[in-house]
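Changelog-adjacent note: as of this version, every example in the card shows the full chain rather than a window. The one below runs 173 residues end to end.
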Amino acid sequence: MRPPRAGTDRLPLVIILHPAGGIGSNIVDWEQDLLGLGIATFVVDSFSGRGIVNLLNNRGELGLLAQSEDAYRALALLQKHPRIDSTRVVLMGFSRGGKAALYASLKRWQRMHGPATNAEFAGYIAFYPGCDVTCTVRVTILGHLCRRPRPHKSGCVLAALPYIALYPRLQPG
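Full-length structure tokens:
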């Protein structure tokens, strides 16, 4: 966990899930941007501990839901951290990690794979997750309702706000 500054104040946190290529410069850039906004970060490395470098040539090497499960294990751990405000923890993912964030937002998935504590993320942010699921979406940016979501050519709904983010609470459509 990387806090944006030293101190004892409780901070919002974004848990970041990487794409199939692993942790690259885009993840590092987003982490720096969030830290600059005063938001703590935690990058989940779903590959190294499993002996995986990347999934670019074999996406079947790691099940699609593994990153979602990793995210909920990180939430269970970090919600107890004295510097983290457990009511302001958001999950953000990119590509494969974005799809994992979308799955993690599903109530049915949460009942099946979420933490035993019933802890929830305050929001879900997915960048280019692929839109091969039918769903209804409510777009919010770190807890602030976006009243003007717009459809994207991919079929996803994006909010045109600073540090563009997609925070869906998905329900089967």
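Structural remarks: The domain at 11-172 is CATH 3.40.50 (Rossmann fold).
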